Amino acid sequence: GPCYCDQACARSLDCCHDYAQACPVIPCVVSQWSAWSGCAEPCKTTYRVRTRHIIQEPGNGGEACPALEERAGCVEYWTRQGTECQQSLIPALITTGGFGKARKKRAAADGNERAGYCVEFQLMAITPGCLHSHHSYTRWMHYLREGHTVCVECQHPALHFPSQHCYGDGTGSQKNQLLHWQAVGNHRCKGTWRRIRQLDTCSCPSVHSFLFI
Description:
By secondary structure, the protein is mainly β. It is built from three helices and ten strands, in the order H-H-E-E-E-E-E-H-E-E-E-E-E. The chain folds into two domains: 9-76, Thrombospondin type-1 (TSP1) repeat (TSP-1 type 1 repeat, Single Sheet); 92-212, no CATH class. The longest helix is centred in the middle third of the chain and has 11 residues, at 100-110. The termini are far apart. InterPro entries: SBSPO, SBSPON_C, Somatomedin_B_dom, TSP1_rpt, TSP1_rpt_sf, TSP1_spondin_dom.
């Protein structure tokens, strides 16, 4: 009689003798991936998407089709209107507060001394590279400890205009949002912190005092 390609015979073991020839396996065929979309939301750590579609459905025991959508992490620093996002997305570049005195001397000599501010952060994560710095100019990184509160000063020339903020200071971040920082002078020393508060009058301690670059 006729051979029906319904695949049920493979389970009931009563397939026609020529089932494999009469009902060959039909593989799934999918298209190429589309281009990646933009980020799902601007000014947030979110995702982008690419898709593909089925050209041929599988049949006669062919394997199921693979995933038709992929997502990847994504951050866009510009809004849909083309304006820059809030500062909270930009990783902070920091160095030891010891450089602050030289900065202030240069600014005073130029007549460009401008009022700055400080931001307190709680260090949440630190890469091992911070402790493996043995150069004299990187020893300040050894004072970075998880759980400690650090004070980071924003002063000229890192104080950008007209925003009146240092990049990476966490302005506009949500409460308890994890923000990223990077130590200048050692690309292996970086981590995350949470913004605690901004101090318009700086009184950073000498040990846990740092500068925005």
